[in-house]
Amino acid sequence: MTNATVQGSSIAGDRKTVNFKTSNIIPTYLFSFIAGKFTPVSRTLDGRPMTLLHRETDTTKIRLSMETLFKLHADAIRFLEEYTQIPYPFQKFDFAAIPDFQYGGMEHVGAIDYRASALFLDNGATRDQRLARASVIAHETAHMWFGDLVTMRWFNDVWLKEVFANFMADKITEVSSADANYDLQFVVDHFPAAYAVDRTEGANPIGQPLANLQEAGSMYGGIIYHKAPIMMRQLERLMGKTALRNGLREYLKKYSFSNATWADLIAILDARTPTDLVTWNHVWVSETGRPKFTYQLDGRGGTIKQFVISQQGEDGSQRLWPQSFELELVYSDHIDELTVTMDRAQVSLTQAIGKPTPQYIIFNSSGQGYGIFPIDSVSVLQLERIKNPVARASIYINLYENMLAGQGITPTQLATGHRSLLGKESEELNLRLLTSQLSDLVWNFTRPEARLALASAVERDAWQAMEQETAPGKKKLLFRLYQNIALSTEAKDQLYTIWNEQKSPQA
Ligand SMILES: [Zn+2]
Fold first, then answer.
1. Ramachandran area for residue 152 (φ above 0: left; ψ -120 to 50: alpha; else beta)
2. Are residues 318 and 383 in the same domain?
3. CA distance 265 to 145
4. Interatomic CA distance for residues 398 and 433, integer angstroms
5. CATH code of 210's domain
């Protein structure tokens, strides 16, 4: 299989010669040649023939996966043709499942490679695995337009194709996998990983120069895969969905079968928004770091008289990251959600003035804002009462970032709060955040002399929560936490017994 259609073949003796048509114009990194003992399977969907090459032998996996694989590709193509208003641009569309492929997928024109284990799933596959499969298929298919039809001029803009592939994949899977909570997944997937790099002094910006192609591999990381999607989502909020989509259509049309830079795209988008995108781009894309938010609320007499939110660089600089985020005013019987358009260093939240003074405030409740947000100490105590799982995820992340910054909450306080939530957090994705933060608190933020006491307490809480939990995914997370922090003799004996008897712990 190559990037072009087979034109015919001939056999002479023990040799077979296969002829291919001339391919479309493609960059060299997208050339592909696949040969081996594969089974070809073909289907025609939406009038388009597609062929899959595979080596899977598990008949259950084949039966359960085959039609889904073709359908996911066809759905993605249909979505992209509509979104971009450009019909699938290449002469054919095939894909191959390669055993032990080093990436999840690679977007070779008309001949996508996938790691076979990501495509063929059986009955035991979790929702996460099915989502990941839909997502990688949408990602690679999106590359046919973003990356393959229009290619970055040089690898310093490699993030450009990756961020668009992910951006489109999110939109495609939002339609094709209706049961997933995308807002929650987005927050949990991207923010902790982006902050992990961007809070450090060694952070790299999204866009950075690349002097030598040899170092291209070093550009892929937390910033490209996690900060860039956050930046894109903010860009879409800033411009509006329609204006951004129309800008992308113009960009793809103008640079079809050629190269373009991020600056070329910004120039097209800038003409479609009143905001100065060049300035916006500078702080979000060319620079590193994140902002820190503070607020002043005058709520004397039971009514909000003034509510001012300020932003500055975490490094103390007077930089401004234009962005929008939500906050919730929490009252005893209801919640008021407000959107903050933070386009200046200091914003007066006029829509809050005149409202009753809330019990407490949840900053960044929709999770889309980027930076360190203030924490309201009352909210820490009432986390289990917050119904919105995205707001809870955002709070967990924000509490952790505040703890690291040494403001508002200590590691001990955070650990105590998290322990009490182990048996109460209903979302698996959120429990994953809680358990990984707890294990971090035990090993990295507790002095050796205090560690055994904390570990023992977490062991007890994790075990108890695990015994009460009925969902297998959450049970597994709680056991993993127990296993990670087991420090007491009792816990070690317990783990030894489980291992020795090869019996999983039962409630
Ligand atoms: Zn990619």
1. beta
2. yes
3. 14
4. 12
5. 1.10.390.10
Residue pair 367/391 in contact (Cβ under 8 Å)? The answer is yes
Angle at which helices 241-254 and 262-270 pack, to 10 degrees? 130
- Domain encompassing residue 392: 290-409
Distance from Cα 157 to the centre of ligand 1, integer Å: 13
Compute CA distances 328 → 137, 368, 398, whole Å.
36, 13, 15
CA 318/CA 314 separation, integer angstroms: 9
Distance (angstroms) between ligand 1 centre and the Cα of 140 equals 6
Please tell me the distance between residue 384's alpha carbon and the centre of ligand 1 in angstroms: 38
What residues have CB less than 8 Å from 472, skipping those under 6 apart?
none
Residue with tokens 């969902």: 471
In a domain, 151, yes or no: no
Domain boundary among the residues 368, 389, 409 is at 409
Domains contained in the chain, number: 4
- Going from the Cα of 95 to the center of ligand 1, the distance in angstroms, rounded, reads 15
Assigned token pair, 490: 């009792």
Per-residue pLDDT of 371-423, as tens digits, reads 999 998 766 667 878 889 999 999 999 999 999 999 989 999 999 999 999 99
Whole-number Å distance between alpha carbons of 474 and 455:
20
Q: How distant, in Å, are the alpha carbons of 216, 297, 450 from that of 345?
A: 36, 16, 42
Kindly state whether residues 212 and 95 are assigned to the same domain: no
What b-and-e string marks burial along 467-479, b requiring 16 or more CB atoms within 10 Å of the CB? Answer: eebeeeebbbbbb
Query: Considering the domain boundaries, does residue 152 fall inside one?
Result: no
Same domain, 6 and 122: yes
In the reported structure, the alpha carbon of residue 100 is separated from the centroid of ligand 1 by a whole-number distance in angstroms of 18
| Whether 272 contacts 239, CB under 8 Å | yes
Please check whether residues 187 and 97 belong to one and the same domain.
no
Domain membership of residue 172 (yes or no) is: no
Which residues, chain by chain, have CB under 5 Å from ion ligand 1?
Answer: 162, 165
User: What is the CA(1)–ligand 1 centre distance, in A?
Assistant: 20
* CA-angle at 50, arms to 47 and 53, nearest 5°: 165
User: Tell me: the pLDDT tens digits for 328-374?
Assistant: 999 989 999 999 999 999 999 999 999 999 999 999 999 999 999 99
Transcribe 439-477 into DSSP letters.
HHHHHHSS-HHHHHHHHHHHHHHHHHHHHH---HHHHHH
- Is 267 a member of any domain? yes
447 and 332, same structural domain? no
Please give the Cα distance from 7 to 4 (Å, whole number): 9
CA of 271 to the centre of ligand 1 (A): 28
